[in-house]
Specification:
Two copies of one chain form a homodimer.
Chain A: H1 4-10, E1 18-23, H2 36-39, H3 43-50, E2 53-58, H4 68-75, H5 87-94, E3 104-113, E4 119-121, H6 129-142, E5 145-146, E6 149-155, E7 160-166, H7 197-214, E8 222-229, H8 237-241, E9 245-248, H9 252-260, E10 264-265, H10 272-281, E11 288-293, H11 295-302, H12 305-324, E12 329-333, E13 350-356, H13 369-373, E14 378-381, H14 385-392
Parallel strand pairs in A: 1-11, 1-12, 2-14, 9-10, 9-11
Antiparallel strand pairs in A: 2-13, 3-4, 3-7, 3-8, 5-6, 6-7, 12-13
Chain lengths: 401, 401
């Protein structure tokens, strides 16, 4: 990885086009001797692998399991250890909330407090989503602003909600109020830096009012906040890489992550087929396409090996549409692994294939973890995918005299 | 490699167990077409490699030959460029000296000085060890303390000894007094930082008295000091990794290195068989076992290819005992290579095999340097072995939201 200053000095605007196809959580572990990728019938991806140079990537570092934030930032060419995306921000992006630079957001839980002020259930018995909507409406109607700061409350599922504070000079560097264990009182709102003192007071005032409003609403008679955060200041992809990038994704969180690095979000439908139609329709307007397939990860998280295989096969059937557009560079990979065996994100490296007429070939003939691990690119950090894609699109000048 | 702060925030205590089997200096170079590992008959290690994911590691960086200090620190998950273990400390650990935090230790040589005060033999003609013992006793009887600082002198072999100063507020950042060349006077005791001035004076007083005492003892009429140092401040493995680690080793230096990172040292015998018995006897009490095999390195240093092969085969016969205990994760590797051809530590990467039910397999079928170099883990830094072992024992949480 070279510094952003160096990359910025080397990138040039050219007409060549790059397509980055991300099968979220695609890497797996063997079940009955085969991983999901090994079990899937993927003639088009295998053919592409045959014409490409392949490798495996670590999103953060060997052994480290990445969340979606670091998993995506690294693929987009940003050091995932430098830019931290707080849980509040990620949850807000996940429900499609648009975030301004100074907005402070938190992940909220409805919870149950006893008469001594101790938390007896951090999730208020996982109240139904309808009850959650009702309580969020109640809070929103009663609390619209605090000391000139606008307050917005948006329900998630069950006991979860997102809380946003919008106003000038806010600073999200505050500790969680969620004590993480039952039998404890909520933690006070504590600023991590002096600059966050005013924001701490506003959040504290919000909590006091919320507690008054919810007092008689057992089990959900209080709220706990976690991951209080602001969007990090990230230079855009157009600024750093001189790209005009577009995002094609079906889930809000990934559109949100793409927004953070300055991609334009394209309208698309719910289905994988819709995403490839959107690609075709918008192909002329951009030179970088991030196409995100969510369901490989979803079925991995569900532990549904067979459905994950089916999604991989469904994507495979659309590869000819992608190639027919004639992109100069095609990369196919995952942001992290989600083996059905583990039902969770994992630390295992991501298979990566890079097609360009300006890349060497290797003898990898299929898009699987083991085959890519033997590929010509070897094992490398995902943050280096972007320089590789840019280079093989002839968008990077020589470094040094 | 991620920072210690990140690793510390991700590790969790779980019941799963990790065994790290280190064949010191196991990597080699071909003699008559085969390395020691290739020549050895190792059915059990090969079978384990077949069920594992394999790779090769660099202890420090490609091309860099590590000493035992950096070789071990990196395997234990510590940046070997951040924590320096001085030669004095390593020698002290090597003779089984227990070191306190403020102790300052140095490697000493008996040497010969002429009438002009120039060193004419830096090793005093390699005096016999018996003479060395006699001189160390003499010095120790005459010099027990200086300005309240306790002085301890322990002989090594031939002209070598270890010198320890114990007292409050000592600082070991002093330059060597050994001029490294004959025909020069000993260098004065020079502090590298102002905080070490008092310690410099104490060492200087020691040298004045030693010179008086030894004046008429040709050829050993003076002493030279090298590698004056203190143990580095290293967070323990329990603190960083939340492990309860144990060390099974036969040589003092390795027990000493393990002590530096907070391992409990288990009693064991002289033989390889004894080490596996100690493992079995203590298996319930710990969740991390470092098992050190010394003789692969010793015979490598001797240039004894055949004996090194025999030691590898001997270790192989004990592998079933290790596996029968059912550890969740087994790693087998070396801390550096010691090819018999070179009779010395070398820069060649270490073969590494990682067994866990949560790791992918590759098509490596034997524990050799060349086979592991084609393995699914590729080539990586040894400092990342620990995150990989922790991850595949499910002891690491996700990084980032």
């Amino acid at each position: 990885m070279v510094s952003e200053e160096i990359i910025r000095s080397l990138t040039v605007k050219t007409p060549s086009k790059i397509a980055l196809l991300v099968l979220d959580g695609v890497g797996g572990l063997p079940v009955d001797g085969k991983t999901e990728l090994e079990a899937a019938h993927t003639p088009h991806l295998d053919e592409l692998a045959s014409r490409s140079i392949c490798g495996v990537t670590d999103a953060v570092s060997p052994g480290i399991t990445p969340g979606s934030g670091p998993g995506h930032l690294s693929m987009f060419g940003y050091d995932p250890l430098r830019y931290e995306i707080g849980r509040g921000v990620l949850e807000a992006l996940g429900i499609g909330m648009e975030l301004g630079k100074e907005d402070v957001v938190a992940r909220g839980n409805f919870a149950t407090m006893d008469k001594q002020g101790l938390i007896v259930d951090r999730r208020a018995g996982r109240i139904p989503t309808e009850k959650n909507i009702e309580l969020c409406d109640l809070l929103q109607n009663e609390i619209k602003e605090i000391e000139g700061v606008r307050v917005e409350i948006r329900n998630g599922k069950e006991h979860r909600f997102v809380l946003r504070f919008s106003g000038e000079g806010l600073d999200g560097r505050l500790q969680d109020t969620d004590p993480q264990r039952e039998g404890q009182p909520p933690r006070p709102v504590t600023p991590i830096v002096p600059e966050a003192q005013r924001t701490a007071r506003i959040v504290e005032l919000f909590l006091e009012r919320a507690n008054q409003i919810l007092r008689d609403h057992r089990p959900a008679n209080t709220v706990l906040l976690r991951g209080i955060s602001q969007i990090p200041e990230i230079p855009s992809m157009s600024e750093l890489f001189k790209l005009t990038p577009a995002c094609i994704a079906t889930y809000p969180m990934y559109k949100g992550l793409a927004t953070l690095v300055g991609m334009e979000i394209l309208t698309t439908g719910e289905e994988i087929a819709d995403e490839f139609i959107s690609l075709k329709e918008n192909y002329d307007r951009f030179d970088f396409f991030y196409i995100h397939i969510k369901k490989t990860d979803s079925y991995g998280e569900d532990g549904d090996f067979q459905r994950k295989v089916q999604i991989i096969e469904e994507v495979d059937r659309h590869i000819p549409e992608l190639l027919a557009l004639g992109p100069d560079v095609v990369a196919v990979t995952g942001d992290h692994s989600t083996p059905s065996l583990l039902k969770a994100h994992s630390w295992h490296p991501n298979p990566f294939i890079l097609y360009s007429r300006y890349e060497r070939a290797d003898d990898v003939r299929e898009f699987t973890e083991a085959a890519c691990a033997r590929g010509g690119l070897g094992r490398f950090l995902a943050v280096d995918e972007m320089p590789l894609m840019l280079a093989s699109a002839l968008k990077l000048k020589k470094f040094g005299a």
